[in-house]
Amino acid sequence: MPSSHAPSDQVVLPISRPSVRAGSRPTLTDRFLAFDAEHPYVYRALERLTADRLATGASRVGLKALFEDLRWQLPAGVRGLNNNFTALYARKLIGDHPHWASAFELRRRRTL
């Protein structure tokens, strides 16, 4: 199965606001924004792990691997580190650190 890499000139928009669908279930973006707001240290830890990987000479970083590393580091009581959030964290990292864009493989989002 071919992998579709994000073109280098692709604009990565930051995830900044929840959806406005009255009466519907929260979208993945809604759940991500709520989790990120409640647990900002998760993003800071992912930033640190990414910087550490790149500093060792890695040219690619997999957010799922970082999530597994992070699960070992977080207190046992922290729940909600959902693998569905990896793509959104990758986009947020690229939004805050555009020079890291080539380290992550992004695919087109099919849902919100």
Q: Ranges with pLDDT <50 over ≥5 residues? A: 1-13
Number of strands: 0
**Gross geometry:** globular
Helix count, DSSP H or I runs of 4 or more residues: 4
Portion of residues in beta strands equals under 5%
End-to-end C-alpha gap: 24 Å
Instruction: State the share of residues found in helices, binned by percent.
Output: 40-55%
Structural class: mainly alpha
Radius of gyration: 14 Å
What is the chain-wise order of helices and strands?
A: HHHH
Average residue pLDDT: 81
User: What can be said about the biggest beta sheet?
Assistant: none
Give the arrangement of secondary structure elements.
Layout: H1 28-38, H2 40-55, H3 63-73, H4 86-96
Helix pairs in contact: 1-2, 2-3
Explain how this protein is built.
By secondary structure, the protein is an all-alpha fold. 44% of the residues lie in helices and 0% in strands. It is globular.
For the structure shown, list the relevant keywords.
mainly alpha; 112 residues; disordered N terminus
In short:
The chain is an all-alpha fold and about 110 residues long. It contains four helices and no strands.
